[in-house]
Amino acid sequence: MAEVQVQEKGGKGGKVRSKKQNTRVDMTPMVDLGFLLITFFMFTTTFSKPNVMDLGLPAKPKDEKQKPPPTEIKLSNSISILLGKDNRVFWHQQDATSLNDQTLMETTLDREGIRKVIQQAKSRAADQTKFTVIIKPTDDAIYKNFVDILDEMAITKSEQYGVTDIKPWEKAIYEKKVGGAAAPAATK
């Protein structure tokens, strides 16, 4: 609360000439109010929620007998995209016997890179209605690159795509292309 202090000054003959008032404002209630407001806004604010991407995956069968047979996709109607470390992206349209480090092509994650590759592969497909993109992230891939590839599926209107593990024969070629896996430690 504000307090008023009155001081009297005496002049000649002890007469009071003027009363000067000094005011002092106590700021304690204002500080309390400030902390109450801060607390109120902290509790009523909605914090940023984590972004979740909906992948629309089919339900897993409860019984092994209900499990569908593996889908065979023709090489002429598909492209395989490998997401590697250091934002590197590789692609191929080969099978296990014909894939080598020359046929595993590298591109970038931009409009002139993977988008152009997907569009060209789709235009060369034998049946464009069945064109399928197979996304294979490696253990070194980062989540941002995976999201970027899914964005490219929407941009290129590639409605049929799948996410699967990299095959051992692809992994061997990939490791050879990126400089190989770490050599085993020498023993003494």
Mean pLDDT: 79
Query: Reading side by side through the largest sheet, how are the strands ordered?
Result: 5-4-3-6-7
Report on the biggest sheet.
Answer: 5 strands, mixed
Poorly predicted runs:
181-188
Distance between the termini: 82 Å
Overall 3D shape: elongated
Helix content: 25-40%
- Indicate the proportion of strand residues: 15-25%
Discrete helix count: 4
The assigned structural class equals: alpha/beta
Order of helices and strands: EEHEEEHEHEH
What is the total tally of β strands? 7
Radius of gyration: 35 Å
Written overview of the protein:
The chain is an alpha/beta fold and 188 residues long. The chain contains four helices and seven strands; from the N terminus they run ββαβββαβαβα. 12% of the residues are buried. The chain has helices at 28-44, 111-124, 143-155, 168-177, and strands at 2-10, 16-25, 78-83, 89-92, 105-107, 132-137, 161-163. A five-stranded mixed beta sheet has the order 5-4-3-6-7, covered by helices on one side. The longest helix is centred in the first third of the chain and has 17 residues, at 28-44.
